[in-house]
Design brief:
Blueprint lengths: L30 H9 L7 E6 L2 H9 L7 E8 L4 E11 L12 E4 L14 E5 L9 H11 L7 E8 L5 E8 L4 H8 L6 E4 L16 H5 L4 E3 L7 H12 L2 H11 L2 H14 L5 H4 L3 E6 L4 E6 L45 H6 L3 H16 L4 H15 L19 H6 L18 H15 L9 E7 L16 E6 L5 E2 L4 E3 L8 E2 L5 E2 L4 E6 L9 E2 L8 E6 L8 E7 L7 E4 L7 E3 L15 E6 L3 E8 L6 E8 L4 E2 L10 E2 L7 E7 L6 E7 L7 E7 L9 E2 L1
Parallel strand pairs: 1-6, 18-19
Antiparallel strand pairs: 1-2, 2-3, 3-4, 4-5, 5-7, 6-7, 8-9, 8-10, 10-11, 12-13, 12-22, 13-18, 14-17, 15-16, 15-20, 20-21, 22-23, 24-25, 25-30, 26-29, 26-31, 27-28, 31-32
């Protein structure tokens, strides 16, 4: 048996050597949020909700779907964790355009008649009908992708709702988590800011100036509703004035002081990838703006996401005479020409942000990250398949099926909706793509047709200690928290004007002094002690030993975009958390703190990042400095002894000898690390196994599958 030398298809990739830098993380440390997570938002099962109310009251609500008046009812909720009945619960119709649907959505309020009451951390339950989506899976999938992108977004799960005997109302609904002070407190740590619900009612919530721009003029529009601070529209009016009336230089320099731009771009990039056209960009609709009083910035919170993943209406075209094929919609001007802004112009906030080259590049970067990350078929299809199996017995049964259901959907339409239509069909109204074919086609189009991202410097938050007792003393002899940056470039990086923060979206919280340069392949230590008098590299915040996120931002001159971030867990005294190897996407608690030194371990390790098909990267650590490292691949695992005449003869690989190939040879750097970017053909996905072999020491890494 010999080793055949053949190079598989290699490509530069898209700069996805690391996964998306973290922003907000799901706030499972919040008591109410965790209660709901453990008892209400259960994956893998349907929760049963039975409402009992006066038949006359139900009929009145059905006859008056636009009312916001609650009627009294009793609610029984059961799942694997609960079997509870609650009296004096409020019920009313909810939603916007769907109120007139045959299967109209409902809202349950546990505190309407009993102020202060909560149901496992929730005050309200929003039961969305998703009546236009034959798969009943688009909104839940979109919410999941947004949360994985670090965007504060509602949780969602499936509910079988029956009112009284079920003859009038019984069917499958989606429970969307309410955006209220409970949600705000969990995600942002505060709930006292102004919360604006933004939707298309009169002119569209497009953030254009209305009339003279006075707060009272926005208060008079149904497009904007302030829900948390007694109807105060002053901040919204000031924000809209800033967006529309500042000059370009001022807008570019100050927009990050008004808005969590990074979070906003993540949300818009997700819409670009999934074709979600009923949000701000195209429809001026379905989002919240929240005044995060901890950072002083607006937060963008998306809402009502079922018009996505190829959903379109040929009789109500968004673009052109026969609808829009969102699977092949280009990046540039993706949402321009929508109906949310008079004259079909883009919303001014998006238009002006994308006029800033660095912000446009950040949006493009996040579009690629979404496509090759949480949107990728390898990530979405398992969730979609599990959802289909779960819902198959229930979808479009009960009171809502066929002639009694919007669009005439029945269970057969549900079964077909995941794979059909297999291509764009403007006349398959209203779902013009099957869910899974859309994902396949969209990710391929983005990979092949979207512009390439201009890479930002590869500077990483590489290691940190959040409770320093003995690891390292600062200039004053004090043992304070610290973090380490690592420059993985072959050139020096000027950090002048760059900044660090421990709050998402808080650009410029602490700036590096002018003249701060991080040499190539070198480290820089910053003390996180909130004591700038002790030296120039002492940040104005401390690290929490309970765990949090730290962020690295570029300078104002380069758009103030996020360069890198690290989410770290709760850490004990002197416990260090970092990347292995330096600059790697792999993070872990380190065996020991290594300030201003390599984190790389002594054993040869191989880590695969990315998804197949598409760009991937193989990260090697623990090799001998400067050593040649062979990356060997085979179709499957096995046991193969390298024969005489080849490097490291006698070494045993955990690979199948019959299909063994040399994928590539790379040279480790001075820290024993290397990266290979590659693109594998679709037929190799989940088939190829790879091991690294250090030609100097003959060390062999564990086998990884790609």
């Amino acid at each position: 048996m010999t080793i055949s030398f053949r190079i598989l298809t290699l490509a530069a990739g898209l700069g996805l050597a690391t996964p998306v830098a973290a922003q907000y993380q799901q706030p499972l440390g919040d008591t109410d949020y965790l209660d709901a997570q453990e008892n209400v938002f259960l994956e893998g099962e349907v929760t049963y909700v039975t409402v009992t109310m006066l038949p006359a009251d139900l009929q009145w609500l059905l006859n008056n779907p636009d009312t916001d008046t609650y009627f009294d009812c009793s609610v029984t909720i059961s799942n694997s964790q609960l079997n509870e009945t609650h009296d004096n619960v409020g019920i009313r119709p909810r939603g916007n355009s769907q109120r007139d649907a045959k299967k109209n959505p409902w809202k349950l309020s546990f505190n309407e008649f009993m102020p202060g009451r909560r149901f496992h951390g929730l005050k309200k339950i929003n039961l969305q009908s998703d009546s236009t989506d034959p798969s009943i899976s688009r909104s839940t999938t979109q919410f999941r992708i947004l949360r994985e992108m670090g965007v504060p977004a509602s949780r969602a799960h499936y509910v079988w709702l029956q009112i009284n005997d079920g003859s009038t109302v019984s069917g499958l609904y989606v429970h969307h988590e309410q955006v209220d002070e409970i949600f705000l407190k969990a995600w942002f740590g505060n709930d006292d800011g102004r919360l604006y619900k933004c939707r298309f009612k009169d002119e569209g919530a497009n953030l254009t100036v209305q009339g003279t721009g006075a707060p009272s003029e926005y208060a008079a529009l149904e497009d904007y509703e302030e829900q948390n601070a007694g109807g105060d529209f002053i901040l919204l009016a000031e924000f809209i004035d800033f967006i529309n009336n500042t000059n370009d230089a001022t807008f570019s320099a100050e927009v990050s002081n008004w808005l969590n731009v990074d979070g906003f771009l993540r949300a818009q990039a997700t819409d670009i990838v999934t074709g979600q056209w009923d949000g701000m960009w195209i429809g001026g609709n379905n989002y919240y703006l929240y005044e995060n009083t901890d950072t002083g910035r607006m937060e963008y919170i998306p809402w009502d996401l079922d018009h996505s993943f190829g959903m379109d209406y040929f009789f109500f075209p968004i673009f052109g005479a026969f609808g829009t094929n969102f699977a092949t919609k280009a990046y540039h001007n993706w949402g321009n020409g929508g109906f949310g802004v008079p004259g079909n112009a883009p919303p001014p906030l998006i238009d002006r942000l994308l006029d800033i080259p660095e912000q446009d590049n950040a949006m493009l970067h996040y579009s690629h990250v979404v496509s090759q990350g949480p949107f990728h078929s390898s990530q979405t299809f398992p969730h979609i398949d599990a959802g289909k199996a779960l819902l198959s017995p229930l979808a479009f049964t009960g009171a809502f099926s066929g002639s009694s259901m919007d669009n005439g959907y029945d269970n057969g339409d549900f079964q077909a909706a995941f794979d059909s239509p297999g291509g764009y069909s403007a006349f398959s109204n209203p779902a013009t793509w099957g869910l899974k074919p859309f994902i396949d086609r969209r990710q391929r189009f983005i990979l092949e047709d979207f512009p390439q991202v201009i890479p930002t410097p590869r500077v990483y938050i590489n290691e940190l200690v959040a409770d320093n007792e003995t690891t390292l003393a600062d200039e004053a002899g004090e043992f304070d928290d610290w973090l380490e940056l690592y420059n993985d470039e072959d050139f020096d990086v000027d950090l002048s004007g760059w900044s660090l923060s421990d709050k998402p979206g808080e650009v410029g919280a602490w700036e590096f002094p002018a003249g701060t340069v991080l040499p190539a392949k070198s480290y820089l230590l910053v003390w996180c002690d909130d004591d700038g008098l002790q030296g120039p590299l002492h940040a104005n915040f401390r690290l929490s030993d309970n765990g949090e996120t730290v962020h690295l931002w570029s300078s104002a001159a380069t758009g103030q975009v996020m360069i890198n971030a690290m989410v770290f867990p709760g850490l004990a005294n002197d416990e260090s958390y970092g990347r292995i190897p330096d600059g790697s996407p792999k993070e872990a608690i380190l065996p020991m703190a290594t300030p201003m030194a390599s984190n790389n371990g002594t054993s040869l390790e191989l880590l695969a990042a990315g998804n197949c098909p598409g760009p991937q990267s193989l990260h090697i650590s623990g090799a001998a400095p400067g050593a040649a490292v062979y990356l060997l691949a085979s179709w499957g695992s096995g046991s193969f002894t390298i024969p005489a005449g080849y490097p490291c003869a006698g070494s045993v690989l955990d690979l199948a000898g019959g299909t063994l190939r040399l994928l590539a040879t790379v040279n480790a750097d001075v820290n024993g690390a290397a990266i290979l970017n590659l693109t594998l053909p679709a037929g190799a996905c989940q088939q190829i196994s790879v091991q690294a072999l250090d030609a100097s020491s003959c060390a062999i890494s564990p086998r990884v599958s790609i």
